[in-house]
Every structure is written in C-alpha cells, then in structure tokens.
Write a structure and sequence with these properties.
The protein has one helix spanning 18-25; strands spanning 3-12, 45-49, 65-68, 71-73, 83-87, 92-95, 108-113. Strands 1, 2, 4, 5 and 7 form a five-stranded antiparallel β-sheet that branches. Strands 3-6 form a two-stranded antiparallel ribbon. The mean pLDDT is 88. It contains one helix and seven strands. The chain is mainly beta.
Length: 114
C-alpha cells in the first residue's frame, strides 16, 4: 500500500525525447495547473490526470478515474484540491479497462509523488 501524495500523471504510447522531458521539468508544454499538455507532448498522449478537483483524464481519451479512499489535497505548488493523498489503507484510483491503455509496447510515464 502507498502512503503519500500523487499528482500530474501522464502516459504516452511512445518514448519521450530528452528535450520533452526537460520541457516537462521546466513547465514548458506541461503545466502544474489544470491546463492540458501542449506542443509535441500531445503526440501519443494516452492519459493525463492533473487531479484538478477530480480524477478525470484531460487527454481527451476518456480514461477517467474512480477515486476509492484517496482524498484531494494541496499539490507541491500550494494549489488546493490539486493532488491526491493516500493513507496506505486500501486507497486507490481505478481507471476502467480502456483499449488505449492496453498492450503498450513502448511507453513513457510521468508522475509526481511524495
């Protein structure tokens, strides 16, 4: 069981380039707010969960999550209701079985956690 905070999960069906990773780290084309990803990060985006008051997928692919036990919390930038806190006691966010998330051969995942 995980105990801590999770925010800004992104999944791509391809390997991200070093430049894209650097851009994400520096907030270029990938925001710490509820904005959608932009630029080349749109290419191959399968799911993006910025946790802006909910566990909805903002990639446009409909991979919305159902929250079970986790609670909204302040994110690493001080934005309220913008991350989820897990107490380690059966908390999880479930995403329904979606064809976009199946059989990913090459993929990248980005997540902020503490």
């Amino acid at each position: 069981m995980y105990q801590g905070w999770i925010d800004d999960i992104g999944i791509w069906n391809r390997a991200l380039t070093q430049q894209e990773i650097n851009e994400m780290h520096n907030g270029v084309n990938y925001s710490d707010t509820c904005n959608a990803v932009t630029g080349s990060l749109i290419n191959g985006l399968v799911g993006y969960w910025p946790f802006c008051g909910n566990a909805n997928d903002q990639s446009g692919n409909g991979n919305n999550g159902m929250v079970n036990g986790a609670t909204l919390s302040t994110d690493r930038f001080g934005n309220s209701d913008s991350a989820y806190s897990f107490d380690g006691q059966n908390d999880f966010i479930e995403v329904s079985n979606n064809i976009n998330l199946q059989n990913l051969q090459n993929f990248s995942i980005s997540v902020w956690y503490k």
